[in-house]
Amino acid sequence: MTDLRDGFLYHPESVATTAQLERLLAGEHNTAFDDPFGAAVQEAEQELRDEEEKERKALERLNLIRAKIERLKAHKVEVEKAVHHFLDTGKIEDVLLPACRELISNEWRAFSAADAPAKEQEIKDAHDTLSDQLGDDWEISETKADDKFVYVTIKRLRAVAAPERPYADEIVACITEKVRAAFKTYRLDFKTRARPLRLMAVAASPRASP
After folding, report:
1. What is the pLDDT of residues 99-127, one digit of tens each?
2. Which sequence ranges form a coiled-coil region, renumbered to this chain (predicted)?
3. Any long-range contacts for 185-191 (C-beta under 8 Å, 24+ apart)?
C-alpha cells in the first residue's frame, strides 16, 4: 500500500521548517505542500517555552529562598533562646558558636598574600623562559598560576586565515531582506496557484409519485 507521505499529502523532500525556508529562498517552494509561516509559529512557540522555563526555574529558586528564610528565622529564634539559657545557667550551647566566616576569609587572604611574591616570580620566569624558546611566529598571550601549576597560553596567526566574516547585524539584515523578498514571491504564487474545484451539494428534487 502506498504511503501517503511519499509526496501525495506532504513534500517528498522534507517538511521541516528550515527545509521549507531554504526552498523558499531558492525559489523552489511548493504552495500546495509548504507552509513557510510555520517557522514564525515555531519561533513564537519556542520563545514562549523558553520564557516559561525561565519562570519555572525562577519560581523554583524563589521557593528555595523562601524555605531558607524560614529556616534562618527558626535558627535566629533558637540562638536567642540559647542566649537567654546562657544568662540563666551559664551553659554555652553549640548554636551560640559563630561560623566565623570573616575570620576564615581573612586567614585565606593571608595565605594568598604570603604566596603572592613567589607566584609572581614563577609567572615571570615561565614567561621569560618560553619567550626565549618560542619562534618568531608565536607569542605569549597569558601567564597565570595557582597553588600547584603555572599556566602559559601561547598563540600564533593561522597559516591560512579564515575568510572575513560580516558582522552579526549585517548577516541578520541580509537574511531578513532575502526572506522578505522570498515571501513576496510566495504571496504572488499563492494567490495565483491552481485551486481544486469545490464540490457543490445539489438538493435532489423530490420524485413524482408513481
Report:
1. 888 899 999 999 999 999 999 999 999 99
2. 41-82
3. 185/27, 186/24, 186/29, 186/31, 186/36, 189/29, 189/31, 190/31
